Amino acid sequence: MTFCLDGKKLANNLLKELSQQVSQLPRPPHLAVLLIGDDPASHLYVNLKAKAATKTGLRVTKVMLPTKTNQPTLLKLIQDFNQQPDIDAILVQLPLPKHLDESIIIQTIKPSKDADGFQPINIQKFLNGQNQFIPGLIEGIIKLINLSKKNLNGGQACLLVNSPQFGQPLEKALINMGLKVNLLKNKTDNILAQADLVISALGQPHYLTINDFKDEAIIIDVGTTKINSHLLGDVDPNNPLNKPIFLTPVPGGVGPVTVAMLLWSVYRLTIKNLSSNI
Predict the structure, then answer these.
(1) Given a cut of 70, is residue 278 above it in pLDDT?
(2) Fewest C-beta atoms under 10 Å: which of 37, 95, 116, 277?
(3) Residue 211 CB-half CA count within 13 A
(4) Could you give the CA distance from residue 152 to residue 218 in angstroms, rounded to a whole number?
(5) Confidence of residue 133 (pLDDT cuts 50, 70, 90)
(6) Considering the domain boundaries, does residue 34 fall inside one?
(7) Given this model, what pLDDT does residue 205 score?
């Protein structure tokens, strides 16, 4: 049978613990969120993040901008947030409209207010072993892997990713866990079939089937695509149903845990901000 790595249950536990920690702070952590455009999935994700944040005791400021917003306007908003001492963390919801330069916009976020953890300075510090601050998405993936309770030290991992900004720190984190990592851009059966861990973030619905993996493999499905109001992952979970692997569901796997770890990142940034203002 396929073993479900339940992201919803894990996220609920993480948020419950976070709520207790937040209640002990002198003020609520403050997250500023910028959402540009009318992409339905982006609006859904921002609403989920804001709802979880409010429930956990965080303060959220949402700024929603039209698709035609120009880059100087967006950069000015980020710079203003950078200067506001009561804003602890900044999140720019991706993807951005095509006329906006994602790399420049993410670079503009002050490293000490980088909620997602993908600001280039923070990534480079992590890759160099100078910074223990890990992007929330990657920290969430590690927590889901640990749900399997399998010892992966010395094991083989395959990563199917499109983005080096995500792939490089993820590879580093897995190497730190003792895994040997193969970076793939597409399906390579003979490598996948030997992997103890497979992480797919291609955004290609049902590109992989459970038959592509060996028994007892751990599969983390990061890819989500919305088709006719349904969210589909990169992995078809129904082919076959009885193969013994560990799999994150879509929805209910990586998504809820990523939201929880984002809010934990905001909390940690708040602790540092409060300390620096004493």
Answers:
(1) no
(2) 277
(3) 5
(4) 10
(5) confident
(6) yes
(7) 94
Domain interval for residue 39 = 26-110
Question: Looking at the domain assignment, is residue 201 inside a domain?
Answer: yes
pLDDT digits (tens, 9 = 90+) for 140-172: 999 999 999 999 999 999 999 988 889 999 999
Query: For 48-67, how does the pLDDT look when each residue is reduced to its tens digit (9 = 90+)?
Result: 999 999 999 999 999 999 99
Q: Residue 241 has what pLDDT?
A: 64
Coil vs helix vs strand at 258: helix
Question: Is residue 271 one of the residues assigned to a domain?
Answer: no
Instruction: Identify any residues that bridge with 183 across adjacent strands, giving them in sequence order.
Output: 159
Confidence of residue 254 (pLDDT cuts 50, 70, 90): very high
Q: How far apart are CA 126 and CA 74, in angstroms?
A: 27
Long-range contacts of 82-86 (CB under 8 A, 24+ apart): 82/108, 82/109, 82/110, 82/113, 85/273, 85/277, 86/30
Provide the residue type at 69 as one letter: T
Considering only CA atoms, which of 78, 82, 94 is closest in space to residue 36?
Answer: 94
* CB within 8 Å of 105: residues ≥ 6 apart: 71, 74, 75, 78, 92, 96
The last residue of a domain, from among 110, 128, 153: 110
Cα 256 to the chain's mean position, in Å? 9
